[in-house]
């Protein structure tokens, strides 16, 4: 132990640091003028994510400005499909494109290009060398289900219908896609740890679109397998699971996946979560990003409700999903004052 306390890491390990740590999903992003300036100079999102100098700088921007307890690596969940051999581009105003989409192409035709992840490990090394001692460095990956929805459709898709249909039509082929993502994800998270991250989060942005049986098969089982494989290599590195939209299925996810902490989206009632989730399980969340945009009394009331519901358990304050680009900087400052009061 270094003797320097990291409140976020302490909470993720189930301890009580005496203060409530806070970071915000997508805290390195477009609501920051310094991010927009760098992006205008550097070009596209993906160019920046693969440029260790730029990505490290962007990761550090919100730490310098706000002193958050956690720094999240600036990257994206779609680097895994890219490393598995799909082409990845971001079309302005339309979002990501992955080619060929697996809905009409065989996974076996892809050739993995794992070297595509190397610049990201360089970014991690740069950030780890520059972070303040009390800041916890978070790595991440998308969960296999969410990543598969993009690999199958080749882009974002309404209600993830292409992937859900594919999974019913050909569960064996879909399983092969999930397995390919899972294997690469364990290596990727492990590479991030070796380069310097101290905890990791699995983002399952579309966990909410599955029926209970499909949720068990495509979210719970693969997540448990990733956690087990990751823990075999890094037993002391906490894993945060964030199954967005899982609702009533959160309790099963918490019990069965082996994650060390669970992220809650803003649709979850904090009082329900405090009651229904295992008492020692650290929770993270779950302010509505729109309450942060609203500011004032609405923000204060919503934040205090969450803080009081989680008074008696390890809690990391966060949003229920990513911070929105039109969020006023002074509202973020107000939130920090509330949480740290
Ligand atoms: C489809 C998808 C993507 N990315 C993601 C999804 C799944 C759906 C969701 O959860 O919203 C998820 C995502 N994106 C990012 C993370 C990492 C976590 C974090 O930063 O807290 C995660 C989990 C970083 C990011 N990903 C992106 C940013 C840039 C900054 C910002 O949007 O403010 C960050 C921090 C950019 C991105 N990345 C993607 C899009 C469509 C965009 C916006 C287009 C663009 O900016 O050109 C692909």
What can you see in these coordinates?
The chain has about 350 residues and is an alpha/beta fold. It has one domain: TIM Barrel, CATH 3.20.20. The protein is about 50% helix and about 15% strand. The chain is built from 15 helices and 9 strands. The strands form 2 sheets. It has a 7-stranded parallel sheet. Coproporphyrinogen III binds next to β3.
Give the tags.
341 residues; alpha/beta; TIM Barrel; seven-stranded parallel beta sheet; two-stranded antiparallel ribbon; 15 helices; binds coproporphyrinogen III
List all distinct small molecules, including ions and cofactors, that are bound in this structure.
Answer: coproporphyrinogen III
Radius of gyration: 19 Å
- The chain-level mean pLDDT equals 97
CA-based shape: globular
Count of folded domains: 1
Characterize the main sheet.
7 strands, parallel
Number of distinct helices: 15
Q: Supply the CATH class.
A: Alpha Beta
Q: Report the strand count.
A: 9
Poorly predicted parts: none
CATH architecture: Alpha-Beta Barrel
| CATH topology-level fold name | TIM Barrel
Structural class: alpha/beta
């Amino acid at each position: 132990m270094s003797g320097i306390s990291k409140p976020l890491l302490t909470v993720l390990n189930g301890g009580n640091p005496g203060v409530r740590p806070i970071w915000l999903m997508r805290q390195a992003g477009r609501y920051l003028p310094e991010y927009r300036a760098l992006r205008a100079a550097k070009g596209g999102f993906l160019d920046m994510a693969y440029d260790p100098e730029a990505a490290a700088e962007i990761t550090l921007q919100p730490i310098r400005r706000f002193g958050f307890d956690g720094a999240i690596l600036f990257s994206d969940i779609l680097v895994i499909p890219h490393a598995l051999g799909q082409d990845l581009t971001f079309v302005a105003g339309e979002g990501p494109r992955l080619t060929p989409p697996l809905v009409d192409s065989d996974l076996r035709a892809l050739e993995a290009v794992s070297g595509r992840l190397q610049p990201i490990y360089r970014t991690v090394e740069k950030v780890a060398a520059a972070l303040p001692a009390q800041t916890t460095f978070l790595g991440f990956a998308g969960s296999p289900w969410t990543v598969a929805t993009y690999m199958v459709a080749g882009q974002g898709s309404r209600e993830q219908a292409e992937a859900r249909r594919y999974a019913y039509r050909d569960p064996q082929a879909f399983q092969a896609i999930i397995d390919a993502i899972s294997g690469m994800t364990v290596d990727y998270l492990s590479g991030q740890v070796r380069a310097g991250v101290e905890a990791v989060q699995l983002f399952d942005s579309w966990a909410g679109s599955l029926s209970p049986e499909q949720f068990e098969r495509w979210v719970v089982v693969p997540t448990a397998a990733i956690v087990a494989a990751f823990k075999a290599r890094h037993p002391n590195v906490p894993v945060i699971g964030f199954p967005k939209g899982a609702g009533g299925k959160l309790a099963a996810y918490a019990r069965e996946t082996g994650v060390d902490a669970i992220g809650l989206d803003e649709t979850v009632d904090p009082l329900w979560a405090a009651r229904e989730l295992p008492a020692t399980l650290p929770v993270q969340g779950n302010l509505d990003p729109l309450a942060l945009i609203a500011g004032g009394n609405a923000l204060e009331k919503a934040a205090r409700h969450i803080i009081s519901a989680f008074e008696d358990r390890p809690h990391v304050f966060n949003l229920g999903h990513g911070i929105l680009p039109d969020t006023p900087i002074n509202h973020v400052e107000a939130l920090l004052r509330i949480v740290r009061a």
